[in-house]
Design brief:
By secondary structure, the chain is mainly alpha-helical. It has one domain. The protein is built from 6 helices and no strands. It has helices at residues 10-27, 32-49, 55-90, 99-150, 175-198, 206-243.
Amino acid sequence: MATSLEKLRAEPVLETVHRLQERVAARFPSRGLTHVAGELVALVEEVAASPVTSRGRLHAVRFVAQVLIAVVLAAAGYLFITAVRDAVADGPDQGFEWLPLVENAINDLVFASIAIWFLHSMPERLQRQQALALLHRMRSMAHIIDMHQLTKDPERLRASFEPTDKSPAPMALTPAELEHYLDYCSEMLSLVSKTAALCAEESQDAVVLDTVSTIETLTVGMSRKIWQKIEILNATRRELEQEQPGPRPA
């Protein structure tokens, strides 16, 4: 049985994303990043409430499928035994006249097998469909977060920076605020990755696992670029501090 340290649970992820949304709203109440954080909260809440991450709901679907499989097997067995009994009692005398009966029996067995396979794979197919739909939204969320930090270039804070008429609008952020902004974007990308991993906790589906791995790679790459910006920002801040004149001697 998995312990609390061996399994990623939805509750801590949801609690963390709520705290992050409050931190972003407190520091940047009028910026679009606050709205993005709210959308991320809603997405994590939907994932936490989804059957994809609920073992109990998945077991319920599997139980229903197993009951239906038992019904199909019982019906097919009853019909097969009845058909054999009637054929033995009132069957044709000539051998070739048995061919239509055998063909019908084979068709019934094939259709029963198809129904059993469909019911057996139904829980996994439903889980895959729901998981892929959520993962697609997470991938879109990661790109939206990346768009919000895309124009937040620390180079624009340098005194030597010369904007053109095509340059983005001024950031209206101090160096300290820009560092917080970039850090929040990195945290949100990390939470997108953790939310994607929640979709794979109860799944062994290769397609779902591969999609989760793709999202994790995507968010790590985006976050790495953000931390490169933070390193440039810190270097720029040191340059600005050196350029400021110190106090004159008395």
